[in-house]
Every structure is written in structure tokens, then in C-alpha cells.
Amino acid sequence: MSFEDSVSRLGSAIKDLVASAAKDDPSLAGKSEKDQAEVVQWIEKVGQGDIVKADNFKDLNSVLLPRTYIATNYLTAADVALYGALHPIISKLQAPEYHSHPSITRYFDHIQSIPPVRKAADASSNHTLVSFDLVHTPKIDRTPEPPKKKEKKDKAATIDSASPPAPAAVATSTAEAPIDEGKIQKKEKKEKKEKPAVDAAKEAKKESKKGGGGKAAPADEGEPVPSMIDLRVGHILDVQKHPDADGLYIEQIDIGEETGPRTVVSGLVHYIPIEQMRNKYLVAVCNLKPANMRGVKSFAMVLCATSKDGKEGGIELIQPPENSKPGDRVYFEGAEFENATPLSQLNPKKKIFETVQPGFITLESKEAAWVNPATGSTHKIRTKDGVCVAPTLVGASLS
What we know:
The chain is an alpha+beta fold. 38% of the residues lie in helices and 16% in strands. Strands 1, 2, 3, 4, 7, 10, 11, 12, 13 and 14 form a ten-stranded antiparallel β-sheet that branches. A three-stranded antiparallel β-sheet has the order 9-8-15, with no helix packed on it. Residues 155-187 and 191-218 have low confidence and may be disordered.
């Protein structure tokens, strides 16, 4: 089936919406033959109507969980059609209902905010903008796992607490049966023999902890290095102004996690217009300790370049290479950094980011890099597809 045939089978309102959006951008039909086939397939599914029925929302939510777009890795007519089909249902949902299908809500809000879709929708009275209360969205529990040290202590406590009940068991059995002095004496002798063995085992454990066992050093010990920082490609799916802070944005950023986008709060309102934030790809710092920003918890930080003349000289988002995908690893060039694993979470007391950050800069080529203050060596910040850059700023600091 051709693209035109698949669109012609849609309901009139959705058909007009898709036609209006595709009129100005032929690439919405797909940029390759393979993509075009995927687009037609999804438009057919939308035309059949089953995909957007309430009974199938759970399945659709699962399909959309790892995806930004439904058919390909860019906006197509299939997204416009699915948005149009979802609109009459989503627009009537209350907060608890759309929060129960977070992937659908995230996807719908992202698609309706993309300029060509919004332009086509505004031309029609059937697809008005739907507002969502994302500030009070139930937060995902991102509590880090307890340190291994505590787990070892807990195990030791379990062993200690498990040994005392033995005498109680003896008391219970003697109360229920006639007293046999011979048996009691045998049990007492047995217990005396077992106790030294237990004590010896405990002493052996203590000795192994003190010496030869060789306890592994925590991963964040030693001199802070940039590879401890977890940098990933992010994609802004939604951005709103903080209701209680004039200078803050609240963003929903896809960083390729199965749990969905992270909520991120950024103080960029006075420096980057909201239109330039929407649908933007960026570099996110993902292992900072979550922080409350005027009542909203932020689970990452957006990496920005600040002019060497200060904030008044301009602030720009650091941009990953073209064709980057949410979750792509961002790392520092150099044999000692390229294959290093970042920490799961930076310890605020260690001030790792604060120690490394002064070396972050944009070069004459506008490429983002870290300059080692000790050796003067330059390590560009990159993904497997290329180096990350600032749009215009040279000699800018990064934070």
C-alpha cells in the first residue's frame, strides 16, 4: 500500500491533519524505502482504530516506553496520525489517568509541541493543545543501592543474631518432656564444644578484615578525574517554566532509560528562550545527587557553555553530534578515559565535579573539551559519532 492510500483510509479529521503537516515536509512520509514501509504500516494500524482503544493502552504504553517516535528515529506522518487518533481520548483524561500511562503521555505531549504538528493542529479546531500537570507527576524512585560495606555488616549481624536461640530450644524441649539428666549433660558437653568453634570462626573473620584479605578501595578514592562523571546524550521531550521560580525551566529529558524521561530543573530562563529548548538534543550530567529546586526534584544537569565574558555574554547548550540518540555515551578522549566506567553517583562531599569542572572549555573550533591543569593535555568531549560542540562560543567554560 502506498503512503497516499494509507492516509486516505484515515478518518477525515486525522487525514486532514496528516495532509496539512506533510504538505510542507515530504520527509514525513519517510526518508528511505524501509522507513516509508514502517510509516505506512503504522498509519494502517492507526486507521484500523484498535491501537488507541482504552483496552490496548497498556500495550501501546509498553511500545512507546523506549521510543521517541513511533515508526523511525525522527518525526513522521505516522506520529502525526497517532497523535490525531489519541487526541480525543487524551484530552478527556484527568491527571491520575494520564499519569498511569506515562509513556503515552510523554509521547503525546512531545508530538503536539513539535512546530510542524502544532502548526497543522492549530489550523484545525479538532486538535487543540492539551495541557498536562507534569509538576506533580508521581516521581520515579531513584534511591541508590546501599553501599556494600553496610551489606557486610548486616550479614554479620544476621549470623550473630542467629546463634543465641539454641539454648531456648533446649529449655522448650525440657519443659515438655520428662527430665533426662544424661541427655542434658550430653547436650551441655556438645554446646561447649560448638561454642569455641563459633568463636574461632568469628576471630578468623576479624583477622581477615584486619589484614591479608585486601579490602577493595571505593571507586571514588584518589584524585578526581573527568571519567568519573556520567555524561550522556539527552533529548528534551517537554519544557515548562517552573511555577514557583521565574528563572527555572522544568524539563522532561529522555536519556535512553527504560524508566522513561528524567525530570531536570535548569536555571536557563533568562538566557535561552523556551522555543530554543524544545525538542533539543543536549549533553546531560547523569550521576549528580538529585537536588530539590524550589519544590521540584532534579535528577540530572544540562551541560552548558558560558561565555568567557560571563553569563551576560551568552549561555548555550552543548550539542552532541548529528544523528545522536538518547542515552548515547559521552566520554573524554584519551586512553586513560575512553574506556573508564563513571561512578554510579558522585559523592557531594568529595566535590569531584567541582574539582574537574574548571578544566572544561570550548576550543577555537567551538569543540567541548577538558584541559588537564597538571599536564596541559586536551581531551575532547565526544560520542562514538563525533565531538560535542557549542553553537557559537569560543573559550567558554562548561557547567
